[in-house]
């Protein structure tokens, strides 16, 4: 078979490992010819391709990033986008398309399958771990490890200076990274999009700790966390000169606010893009490899319109329609039952 | 409640995190008093204890090892061992005993519960990941990461010198570490206890690679892997002066044998004890924390004779009788379907 | 002898290793009694002390931070500050004071020695590496390694997305971290306080790269780097609600400006406090240990008013008067001859 | 100019960084054409070359190993070896040869220059740090960091089990790695080739620690360390079936011996080849880069018969004749004045 492959959305550790696995199993077991599209959907529409072979993927397992390049954007943004996808697939003789991407790319894939009959198989990718239908997404484990390593470092500074450190981690829509790294790093509090936070409560908790002689605190905040309405005004301070919300908005703001309210020295740390690049952890390399193998298997089983997934310890698949348009919130058992015991 | 806690068997990253979680939830939520036994069963029989509190466990989350100490040995090795355990519990006023350990310690715990009515709860611990009844044990993720980091390093040397590197990893009875690190590290072959290996086949694979211009190979071998009968003689060379099989036995032997048979420069690397010490990965810290919380919960629910466990993404429990006396072999889907595609 | 010790200024990896070395050599070889002052000069003035012994420092070698705590501030800020230092030393029976700190603490130490005859020995501490009189300060190697690890990770994201990444590293007055991590990380350009930068030149360089097909660029900027006068207006945007320059000021601004001028996707990353906490590298542990040994040796030789120092491969000492009031700029041979060849 | 380059001897982190620096400065500043010889001297004699350009070295900075391959062996092993080197250089139009290697390769280079007038420039390479004429060699810092990370991990196991761990590190002729990693890792004793050890003394030291309640000990031993004559018999046990001394010989033996004599649980750990592969530390990347720049500069200055070197904080050069045929022993100030205070 000739099969197209693309990587969409933001960078994520493990992308190359997925591509390598597809190439290895496809080429070696099925005798497939794999065609990589460069720069995601743009590459499909503009027919920019690169061969995806065992040879071209050699040495890529420990490398972060994606050799195919990635970009945001969708064929549905263009009046003739879908036609261009169809033509590309026809002219390149592709019998299937593997889409490795996040909520955005998977939604496009789902629509192309459901409304236009294009034979797609999805592979869920996000460091945020918030895609429905899979227990874990690749890249998440690496992001959590990086955030935890950073928190480990910040503890010693917080303790040496009797400081509050506010660590902003990724997670625009969900608190998976914040909660998991917060547990692993021994945080004082974790603020996540799923639960608007009460700034008074956060400050009280920090003050209670101080009164018990614990002068250092680490507050982990997901970039998408927001204060409860009416508690404090985020204002317009964090909008940059281009009208975008500044990365680090909530982290900076929260640090200022905590410092102001408690009188304790408080410093923000914004981990930012380091969470999504670089070599994947062993866990992510294995998960990515299993996802890649499962994706090319699914193509050969004709399981189109699905996404490969981790269900417990096993690799399975989930219909794309059950996945898209939603965000998987952090496991309440993790946040409430576990995290909350440890925080404060 | 007053609850005793011990850590048994070999060192394992995450032990302190389990202890800390027990102390945090026990003390903060249930108002328990936790009594740590020093040096595993010896500490129970000799009534050597240390208080296990939020305060004594402070700062221990990122630390490898166990503040309680650990030791092999069992009360069943002593004629009055069980009586001493019972007396210790009675005199210390303990209503339950949490046993954090591997197959050995859990078997003791099971027997103490079944035959002597001692209220125990188990927490499965082994870097080898081969305990029945749980999908993952804590410490395994860290061991795999350490082995993978080492394999990453060995690749560049293998390539610069056109060498075969034989990496011996832990796994006396199972190939979990070898298989997982082998996939994550991009090994050429993985040899595990579950499948006696054919030295001819291994050498042929390496030679085939050479013929394709791939002059560097990484062979990962679990310490418990053995050759198929009749294929080659392990001999008595690897017995040390005390009559013990030398750590590194199979790794050294295999490197010699491959070098001899293929004529290629071959070097052994024996990772040994570095795999079981030091700071746990974020994954293991979270799993350990969840296990610790679940263990003290199980005590309060009276779920004695069970072991906490990971089932899929959730924490559950498994009766100890279903766990002991067996070794969980590596998932065939991992070894056969995934690993074998990548090796060679 | 009874000797006081304090750690001043910002957190820095290796502080505990210095303290441990002082305690080991002092106690074991000289039979000294070491008195640790808590929270730097505040602890001296308020006579808050803690014993500094082999035992209290046990296990501290791999730990970041300082068990003594640290704080900014000086006895010269108080009308009776110097008297309180003298009284503290007299009443505690201290014959010498070891001051581990940066430019600020060393200036205080120098003045106490020169103007008030207090027998001090300095140990130069700054992750910024910009203290005169020593080739290297401890903490610098760790900070550079952390920044380099981050740059390694950012490369894959920059390449996958064809992006410019602007990485702000520490260095308010000097470009040591930026230059060294820039060389180690393979940056496109490094902007440092020693050389006001020309934004046009930076953008041209990035554009030239793009024209050669190199779509990813990493710009490393020290927090203290400033644009050449008249080139672009930093404005007042980066002043926070408390009137402080916001950490990340130049990094955020530069990313905005580059994006605006080149039209390329540009993202800021602000490494911040992770650069100054956590476990020291092996290099810093050894340098710290040698500095600690040398400091207590200097006390016993009566070499007061000096600072221990690295001169080439050897440990020596430098009079404090030759050190204070200056900033050691980055080695021109490093910046001009080496860095500039690699950048672009 | 057309300049040949080869990498000889064992793998060493930073080799690619040296090559990349030569290519960058050579191509960009001098307009040189660089010719890489594949597999060291074999490649010269067999005229196997590969172009060494900015482009071919792209992305190699963080990669361990050498893209040129490396091998032991010398033209002086072949009757017409020198002639073949001369012919190769003549026919390839090479005006100089940069030899990146250890004592072996540099001796060859020296002889080729002195006796045969071949214009060579050397770059000192060894993880062992024992080349005369330079304060530090690249690769050493990485090896020490890897060994220190391993020792950190072993501490927790040693402490949890009350064990003695014997860690064998590289260093056939010198104790640089052992001493430096021993200081950085907080070892109990360090045994090095420069000082034959007394097994009785080592055991007494461990016993004294036990008597003080310190039940865990880490003994670091360089692979080339030997017992004082007459103290104990190394015997012939550690010779493998091919008559080679087994890697790990002294480590295994010492662990057995200490266990036997003290009665304490003792375990060997043999770090082996992981110390010489994989990504270089930031320090080694910078040193390698500076060495590469200096080497191509030396070629253009006509400074043949020399080796680039680190003298203090500066890059200089040393005549090859002053370098070869010797081993630089570990700095006594490090071993005696520093290390010995910390051990025990």
TrEMBL record, chains A, B, C, D:
The active site is at residue 128. Pathway: Carbohydrate degradation; glycolysis; D-glyceraldehyde 3-phosphate and glycerone phosphate from D-glucose: step 3/4. GO terms for molecular function: 6-phosphofructokinase activity; AMP binding; ATP binding; diphosphate-fructose-6-phosphate 1-phosphotransferase activity; fructose-6-phosphate binding; identical protein binding; metal ion binding; monosaccharide binding. The keyword Metal-binding applies. Substrate binds at residues 126-128, 163, 170-172, 223, 267, 273-276. Its main location: cytoplasm. It catalyses: beta-D-fructose 6-phosphate + ATP = beta-D-fructose 1,6-bisphosphate + ADP + H(+). Gene3D superfamilies: 3.40.50.450, Phosphofructokinase domain (3.40.50.460). The keyword ATP-binding applies. One of its GO terms (biological process) is fructose 1,6-bisphosphate metabolic process. Keywords: ATP-binding, Cytoplasm, Glycolysis, Kinase, Magnesium, Metal-binding, Nucleotide-binding, Transferase. It holds the Pfam family PFK. Its cofactor is Mg(2+). ATP binds at residues 10, 72-73, 102-105. It is found in: Cytoplasm. Mg(2+) binds at residue 103. Its EC number is 2.7.1.11. Residues 2-299 form the Phosphofructokinase domain. The record marks 104 as: Important for substrate specificity. GO terms for cellular component: 6-phosphofructokinase complex. Homodimer or homotetramer. Belongs to the phosphofructokinase type A (PFKA) family. Mixed-substrate PFK group III subfamily. Catalyzes the phosphorylation of D-fructose 6-phosphate to fructose 1,6-bisphosphate by ATP, the first committing step of glycolysis. This is ATP-dependent 6-phosphofructokinase.
């Amino acid at each position: 078979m000739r099969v197209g492959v693309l990587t969409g959305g933001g960078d994520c550790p493990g992308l190359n490992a997925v591509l390598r696995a597809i190439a290895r199993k496809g080429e070696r077991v099925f005798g497939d010819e794999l065609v990589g599209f460069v720069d995601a959907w743009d590459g499909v529409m503009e027919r920019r391709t690169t061969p995806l072979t065992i040879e071209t993927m050699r040495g890529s397992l420990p490398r972060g990033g994606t050799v195919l390049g990635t970009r945001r954007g969708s064929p549905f943004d263009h009046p003739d986008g879908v036609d261009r996808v169809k033509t590309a697939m026809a002219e390149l003789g592709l019998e299937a398309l593997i889409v490795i991407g996040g909520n955005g790319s998977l939604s496009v894939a789902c629509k192309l399958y459901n409304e236009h009959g294009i034979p797609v198989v999805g592979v869920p990718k996000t460091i945020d771990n918030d895609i429905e239908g899979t227990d874990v997404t690749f890249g998440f484990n690496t992001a959590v490890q990086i955030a935890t390593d950073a928190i480990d470092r910040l503890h010693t500074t917080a303790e040496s200076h009797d400081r509050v450190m506010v660590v902003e981690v990724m997670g625009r829509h969900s608190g998976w990274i914040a909660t998991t790294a917060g547990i692993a790093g021994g945080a004082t509090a974790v603020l996540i999009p799923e639960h608007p936070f009460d700034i008074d409560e956060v400050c009280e908790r920090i003050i209670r700790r101080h009164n018990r002689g614990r002068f250092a605190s680490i507050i982990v905040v997901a970039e998408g966390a927001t204060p409860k309405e009416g508690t404090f005004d985020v204002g317009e301070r964090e909008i940059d000169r281009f009208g975008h919300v500044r990365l680090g908005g909530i982290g900076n703001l929260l640090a200022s606010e905590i410092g102001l309210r408690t009188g304790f020295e408080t410093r923000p740390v914004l981990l930012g893009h380091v969470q999504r690049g670089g070599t994947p952890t062993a866990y992510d390399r294995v998960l990515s490899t299993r996802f890649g193998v499962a994706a090319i298997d699914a193509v050969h089983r004709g399981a189109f319109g699905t996404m490969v997934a981790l269900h417990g310890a096993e690799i399975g698949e989930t219909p794309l329609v059950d996945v898209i348009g939603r965000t998987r919130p952090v496991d309440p058992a993790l946040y409430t039952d576990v995290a909350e015991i440890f925080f404060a």
